[in-house]
Amino acid sequence: MGKLPISLINPATLQNMLRNVTLHLPPGYELIAGTRTDHIYLYYELATATLVGNAHGIKLLVNVPLKAASQHFALYKITVLPARTSGNNFVKYAVEFPYFGIDSSRRDYILFTEAQWRRCTTTSIALCPADVAIYSQQIVSCESSLFFQAADSNKLCRRNLLFNHRTPTLQRHGALWLYHLPEPRQVTLRCPSANGWTSHTETLSEAGIILNSSRCSITTSEFRTLPELSGEIQAGIDTTHIYVPESIPVVASHEISLIKEMSPEVKRLDEVTSKVMTPSQTFDMDSLFHIRQASLRQTNQTYWHVIATTSICAITILGILYLSLRTYVCNLIARCFPPSTVLEPSTSEQDPSPLPPEPRRRAYTPNNDESQRDVAFTSYTLQSTN
Question: Residue 25: phi, psi to the nearest 5?
Fold first, then answer.
């Protein structure tokens, strides 16, 4: 489902179709924009089209909105401006429904919140779902009292009191600007004209409307607006001219036979080329340079790491070999040349004895764990002579 294309159905054809549709509408209903020629363009925005088909044909289904007299409302947006009470103090109405719609007879109205308004399809004519209540004029609300300018609006609407309010309000609605200035301000309007831009200055205060100012820029010492620029221009589209010459033979007639004779050789060359030739590749030069520098830097770092690691390992191995050889030599010397211990004879005086006593033997066991020869030591007691 999509919009109705103007290239498929032109406005004249669509107008005739819509006139035929009006003859079959139920009583009380009519097309949403009528059948006038100056309103036909609206159906290209509002109508939707669906294309269905089968093996026997294709049908175009066009969905056109209808309206009834009781379902057509003129919609207004409520803009509330502060009202001065005294000095820089203002009072401002607080409305719950910023959108107010009233029918052509002015007897019924509807209310929309901002969220409900977003569900509407907004084009030249807004289409909203029928999910809100329609109120009679007898039901008085804050919004209806403001629209009909009832005297008791201040009793029906909630109000806010603004102390020392100095913030200006400036809103654009179509081709006009709606303003409210709590204090008098000097405003400069700069608008386009046939001879360029023209400027003039005005002093504005309180609330008001600046008409036909959408193309003008409004500037004060505190705020400014941007103009909406529009206009017409004529330009020629440059087309590219292509010259197509007559067909000229690229190969001479006597070269055709030579090409046929070379065909087998070309096939063999193609087979060799397909095996040897690498596919074409494209690389970014900056990326290649970056990769090259990173590779060189990583290679240099790798060399230093390898050299340092190799040196440490070699020193460790040599140290281990030196300690092993030293231990082995020490053990060999201790085995071949064992240490000997000689006890000195006692020089202390003893009592004389007529016969020398039997020699005493004391066995000495060396500290070395390995088996060695027994060594016997003999001690004698010396007798003193007068």
Answer: -80, 150
3-state per-residue secondary structure call for 131-171: CCCCEECCCCCHHHHHHCCCCCHHHHCEEEEECCCCCCEEE
Instruction: Report residue 90 as tokens.
Output: 């203002």
Q: Which two tokens stand for residue 123?
A: 């084009």
Q: Tokens standing for 182?
A: 């709590």
Best CA proximity match to 125, nearest among 19, 8, 239, 34? 34
Tokens at 324, concatenated: 């092993």
Q: 220: phi > 0 → left, psi -120 to 50 → alpha, else beta; which?
A: beta
Biggest CA–CA distance in the chain, Å, is 177
For residue 112, how many other CB atoms are within 10 A of its CB? 22
C-alpha–C-alpha distance, residues 324 and 296, integer Å: 42
Local structure of 202: helix, strand or coil: strand
CA dist 67 and 33 (Å) reads: 9
Contact of 364 with 340, CB cutoff 8 Å: no
228 vs 83, 112, 192, 205, 214, CA distance in Å? 30, 30, 10, 24, 6
* Whole-number Å distance between alpha carbons of 41 and 128: 20
Q: Indicate the Cα dihedral angle 365, 368, 372, 378, nearest 10°.
A: -30
Task: List the chain pLDDT tens, one digit each, 386 residues.
Answer: 778 888 888 889 888 988 998 888 888 888 888 888 888 888 888 888 888 888 888 888 888 888 887 778 888 888 888 888 888 888 888 899 999 999 888 889 999 999 999 988 887 788 888 888 999 988 889 898 888 888 777 788 888 888 888 888 888 888 888 888 888 989 998 888 878 888 889 898 888 888 888 888 888 888 888 887 765 655 555 544 444 445 445 555 665 666 666 666 666 766 766 666 555 445 455 565 567 667 767 666 666 777 888 889 989 999 898 888 888 888 888 888 766 544 444 444 444 445 455 545 444 444 544 444 455 555 555 555 44
pTM for the model = 0.51
